[in-house]
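Troubleshooting: if your tokenizer reports a length mismatch, compare your output against this known-good record of 203 residues.
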Amino acid sequence: LLRVLETVEPQPLRRRERTAIKRENERQGCFMQMERKQGSELAMFLALAFLLQSFRLLMPMIPGPVNMFLIGSLLNMVMALAIWRTRTRWAAIIGVLLPIGAFFQGQLPVAPMIPVVAAGNAFFTLAVFALGPRRRAFFAPFLKAAVLFTGTQLVLRMLDLPAPMANVLTFMMSWPQIVTGCLGIFLGRALLKRLPEHNTFHR
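Known-good structure output:
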């Protein structure tokens, strides 16, 4: 009788093991599929951000202040949408890469401003992620403006820039960042509700 039980009892265990392995494979498959989707969406948002950034070159007839507020609002919208859609902090890489393009396009007059703008964009994106697509997300532009303004003052202390250039940088990295950030979040929230497979997360 004991020999019979020894041969019969392991069967349910093996069946449960096969079920557990099957579930684990399905979970890993779903995780890999999610990662591929996140990667493709991040690439799409990055391409869109660079395209919008290039509008400065395609439309040189637009006045500088209008260009700054228009393009800035659209880029903030893309950064917010990217992290809300993908729900991964890797979306902050978009904001980190944008100042490199802005430097080569002549929007940033000095290279030391690249890490300053990259830090401001990263803080903005991560704050938007932490606050979620709610009204409290409008706090993120104030944080971004504080980081950019402080970083700009540090750069101006290190470099002996002409007064006109210093004044333009100070203006660009001050209250306009709050305006463009709030407009970007407003547009991002409006578009997020209309995108397919929209699953708003709450924090």
